[in-house]
Automatic annotation (TrEMBL):
Family stated for the protein in its record: Belongs to the peptidase S8 family.
PROSITE patterns for this protein: SUBTILASE, SUBTILASE_ASP, SUBTILASE_HIS, SUBTILASE_SER
Catalytic site positions: 310, 346, 571
Native species: Litorivicinus lipolyticus
GO BP, one annotated term: proteolysis
Designated name of the protein: S8 family serine peptidase
Location of the Peptidase S8/S53 domain: 301-619
Listed GO MF terms: serine-type endopeptidase activity
Keywords: Hydrolase, Protease, Serine protease, Signal
Family matches, as InterPro entries: Peptidase_S8/S53_dom, Peptidase_S8/S53_dom_sf, Peptidase_S8_Asp-AS, Peptidase_S8_His-AS, Peptidase_S8_Ser-AS, Peptidase_S8_subtilisin-like, Peptidase_S8_subtilisin-rel, Peptidases_S8_Autotransporter
Keyword Acetylation: no
Amino acid sequence: MKNFKKTAVAAALTVCVSGAIILPNDVEAAVRDYSSLVEQHDGGFASQTELARQYIAQTERFVYFYDMYIDRYRERYSTQPWFGFLIQTRDDYQQELDQLTAFLDNANSVPAAPVLVRTETAVDTRYDVVRSAPYEVDRTDTVVEETDDGAIHIYAVVTRVMETAVKTTTVVETTTTRHYNDGSTEAETHSEVSAVETTYEQETQIARQLIESRDIAPEPAPEQEVVSGQGSPTLNVIAADAYMARDDVNLSQTQNYVDAFQTAYSFFGASTILSNERYGKYGNDLDIVNAPEAWARGWTGAGSTIAILDTGIDADHSEFAGRILDQQCFTSACNGSEGMDDVNGHGTHVAGTAAAALDGIGMTGVAPDANLIIGKVATKSGFYDMMGMAQALGWASESGAAVANVSGGYSFGTPFRNAVTAAGNGTYSIANPGSDSTLNAWATNGYYNLNQDSAGSLLSTMKANFSDSEMVMVAAAGNQGLAYSAYPGNYATQTNSDGTLTFGGRILIAGSYDVKTDDLSSFSNAAGTLCVGDSCATSDYRVSDFYLMAPGSFVASAQSGGGYTVKSGTSMAAPVISGAVAIVHQMWPHMKGENLAQLLLATGNKNIPNYDANRHGQGLLDLDEATSPQGTLSIPTSGRADGATTNDFGAIGLSGGAQVSEVMSSLMVLDDYDRDFYVDASSMVTAVDTRTFSHTVAHKDLINTNAYAGYATDAQLVGGGNTLLGISDNGDEINLSYDFNNGLSLGYMTETGTFLGNTADSDLMRINGATTGYLGYNFDTRVSERVSVFGGASAGFTTLNIDQQSMLKGADTVISNTANIGARFNTTAGEFGVVAALPVAIASGDVHFRTPSDIDASGNLVYQDSRSNLAGASREYNLGVFYNNDIGSATRISAYAEQRSNYTGIDGKTEVEAGIQLNIRF
């Protein structure tokens, strides 16, 4: 590459910004057969003539530039192959100029205009309603403390009174239609404002943001402190539909779009621009990529920085007020009269598409709250200084940019395009270069040695400035309508000697999506891979792996010097994707650049007609999907977001659901990209029936009413007298009970896998068993010959066996109780009884959780300590009746009915049980 800078003089003439001049009716690449484009244009004779004049001016400029460089270098380089390429290209442009001039000469000989036959006039009235963006007329900021379940929650409360100006304009449209003797017609519409009325609407918005939660009796401080401002959502967002109702968000069929379109193409009328058969389907780019869905979740790019490496920016444009953090120049053009100003307008348009403000004016960028840094790497003529761009990548990375937008690239010359052939499976190469030294060089080292890694080359300069970074680069695919993409985007697949990606998977290639055709724009280079040397044989990486589409046809954005205009090109698609990177970076600032890029690629919308990965790459950008969880949700179990996780949510069954569900109502989980989401996992806590028996049945049958003993299911009580004992076969469970003669009783039992019949076997909360001691008192007293009363009460004290590998870290002693009372009546018709009972239930018992609550900028988990209570919110109570009757000496009939209110501890839930039994003794 010793002669790199010299040969770059010639190559630069093919290096241009990707936002080319586009024929507005039938989009084609700019460097094409201009005369044919004029003749094929269906906008009418007047439009063809105007278009021809524009192309003549453009082509004359090209011929001038080529003549200048040919004269300058003829003496020294006339024998070089590339010099012949310059002369050939200049002659091609001259031929186009001659043909366009001939077209205009023929136009002057058009027959006389037809004769007017009659004129018709129609008058119509329309009402244009323009709603301003809501603006703040009053604001109150307060800090509120709330106490709930032993914890203090501190909220920042912002109360804003927002006012919207609603301007209704009454417009009288007079349409005059002229009919000519040749059958043609000509319509002209004149609009006149007859009335303007402005009304005002007010709305009060209250936003609450949790600042801090802490125990009243503080627990030990967490290991990681929360990093202020990391991953904070934007406050005071509105619903996606409300965003789409704004004229500066959805420009489709709006006056805003008509004005921007006519700035670029003044000869088109509003009816043509708004016609769905022509351009009426454009202007809804933000809706196409679902940006309002991301905004509605609080993700607007706030706190993220986008580097725009382009022709500069109109820093005075209102769309960027207060958000341009820095500007640097990386091309010698800044030394001339233009300085840092955006004389071309391309960079301002690109910056607006990425990050224009949501201010109610004009249009809105994908990331309206993102900051910008501007690297000027292209001249007023639109030609990129690629070496300057490579150096600007290092500056952007060091400045903290999350993404760098490069809406420019190399255009492939005709000899190169003619030599490229399809190699199958979406790959392309120069298959048979023969003895042509130029083709051999291109086949081995890439177009103009762009794949050659030597001192001073573009590749080596990019490696020096962009390899050691977490910044993402978005590059335009190019506008030549080719099956393969251009440089520098092709560097996405560049590999090192060990087969790893040179730029770590952090380059995204932007293809242009056409809203009207629901396909790749006709001018956009597609997702094919251009193979160099043996790159496709030795590497599995393909351009399609890094290729993503975004709207790039007739995009309305900011214009240098003020106002708005429309441009088309992959240059316009790239900043849509750059804005998307800023949005997901706001959500997860700790994510690596590779994951940010991969996230957008993996969530691309492939539901498009005739989807083909080799043409459409990973589909169409989808910010709704990108800001939603992806893959399997898991619970982090180590100190980092990219550390160990588990998706074993297990089973939690508690009487009444207990109050631990509050801890799980906002549980942090990670998706496949280590992104933190907050889900309501309280549904995983199910209410279970922990009652061991029915007191109604027990009193009917005169059996033991020890409610605690039934929990040790593998250690049934056996024995006699006052002492009962049970031990499980493996010795894990013990059940011991002793009844004193005065009605008092003592008991001791152990459980495995349960605690008082409840279950917690999850990485969220795992209790392996429990030990319970209990004290009870029972009585059965005859108050008359036919009436007796009975009852009892018990209290238990339980110690839990906690697995601290789960998020449950400790527990206080669990206190439980049970009680019953009833009466038995002996009558001539049999024995009747009534029973009221409270089954065993936990009355108190705090448990201590330590759960991840956030992720700091370094990817470390931030924890919070919280307390909850195992007591259910409601207490079950039972009311029952029973009946016994001996029919003769050998037959007995028994029956019972019982109502269980607040069944399993759920308030208002009722179950009824009943049974009848006939016993016959032989």
